[in-house]
Design goal:
- This protein has 340 residues and is mainly beta.
- It has one domain: 6 Propeller (Neuraminidase), CATH 2.120.10.
- Strand 3 and strand 4 form a beta hairpin.
- The radius of gyration is 19 Å and the shape is globular.
Length: 340
Amino acid sequence: VALGPSSRLDASNIHPAGRELIAAARRITGAAGAVAISSRPRPRSATGRPIAELSCILPWGAQLGESPVWHEAENALYWVDILHPAVHRYDPATGRNETCETGKLVSAVIPVTAGRLLVASQDGVEWLDFASGRLTPFVSPEAGIADNRLNDAKCGPDGAIWVGSMRIDASKPTGALYRINADGAFERKEGGIIVSNGLGWSPDGRTFYFVDTVPGLIHAYDCDPATGTLSERREFARIPVADGRPDGLAVDAEGGVWCAIWDGWCVRRYLPNGKLDQVIEMPVPRPTSIAFGGPDLSTLFITSARTRLPASTLADAPLSGGLFSCRPGIAGARISLFEG
């Protein structure tokens, strides 16, 4: 809706103003990379197995809910909304969701020892004081690349932060992957990525998984769990565009690789050999990311998005943008705490 002084928004110019507002909204959404990956969601179909315990534990209506991560010391789940910039802390025991408005785009949360938090923001990796919302710079691996932003991030078994980047409008393969030490020193590990997304490691730390969303690929690498050295990149799984596109990723204690499928109404589990093992049906078309949590890491938390969904789809999937959980019968692999 266009609002303004009636003298400036009469019948002759309200429609042009409306078109400009719509164009601006699309540019803002594009800044999160949503345009390039917003294929129209395919119709809902029963291709997977419903899980009786799957429920929407927080019908939040996030525009682009993302990056769930379990904070073991707090028994809480952190997650973000990229398009309504905020970091959230959800307590499964009480159902309470606390919100920290950041005032700038934040795409991932990294728990740190001694109760501290780091986030991947539009300005690099920054310290976050959740109580006040204050952000303090830590390191910016792409400070000189104005058209890029950071996206998903996790602490690896080597104790370093691994974070991917992408072009702001996701139009070119200018994204990369970085490894950041506790002292802020970083190295570029990979390039030529369009939309860097989910990342994770096998339970022994010797295989690294990394998603490039636009071409629908989950890459796998041999990884040295002590040094973070990568080698032997290969295609682990390819998701056809007609099925949706791979987004966030988590690995379970048996080495299974779980991936949220944007526009696919589902979460998939792949065996360590890349074979599709199971599909969990979702009541929303755009699950975005996943994380194992709970005291025994046996709960799977799933974030979702409602951005750019047509009204007809939202009518069929009113819980889009909610936070979901289920117990798939397998615990997650433990994620390291950063010791920065």
